[in-house]
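Much of what follows relies on a compact textual record of a protein's fold. Here is one such record, which you should read through line by line:
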Amino acid sequence: MADTKPVLVVTEPLDITADMVLTHLNERGVPVVRFNPADLPAGELTVSARFGDRPASTPVAGRLRTPSRTADLEHVRAVYWRRPVWPAFEHLDADDARYAAAQVRHGIAGVLHALDGPLWVNHPVRNAAADHKLTQLATAVRLGLTVPATLVTNDPGEARRFIAAHGQVITKTLRWTPYERDGIGMTSWAEPVTADEVDDTVSVAPHLFQARVDKVADLRVLVVGQQSFAVRIDSGLLDWRKDYSALSYRVVDLPNRLEKALLACLDHFALPTGSFDLALDRHGEPHWLELNPNGQWGWLEERTGLPMAAAFADLLAQGDTSR
């Protein structure tokens, strides 16, 4: 008899990467209920959950409904937490909108977090814990990975001394944040910085300074469960994200020691999947840059043919095998 336990896919409507995974889930006959929290005010999403009137073996019971699908909460196989959009309640005044938004987040997310059975890919609380770059750096050091010398400070003098000691230094944000200037969306890249460019404005907030790796290429590694997909990215750019048209890709094998360290990193943060960025120096040594717990990878599958979406589908279809 076919397993009828559904996978919940929580994401925005135009998520091509999620579509790729859903195609493989459909091929495997796995039931899927896809929804976006922003659909709730329009009546296209309803959630009903009961607590306290069931035996201890079923602490949460209820249903989640969309216009086309229904999921019994006590039988959810996995939750694929991709890129959900939360309702903004723009028709309400600011205080009411903030109140309503909080109820949605704690209502929908709270119900899902309370479930015992499903595998989370990935749980948003664990994503958030793993998303701190400085925690990542310390974890990478503990795991024996090569980490560029890094300083976080709001002391301009300390920053200048660090740059003087290391010569080639870059600066990058501690956290990407949506930002507009004159109505135009802005973003930030890793950029070189000199001691002369450091002024007293550094004291306003902590800044990240890092010794520049004399790299020849970048390495993006996607780990899904126990599978690793490694792609070398050649660009000649300090930050390859600045110009995707300048990139070339090559599938590579990971050294066993590096693969074990990356798997251990995900285990440390209790994440089933994550995307790692490393820099390759002229001797082929990988240098840790960062972990993106919910990184994009769809374009890499398109460019390399690696079966990344199929790996996600297999992981979600298995559910939580530890129970």
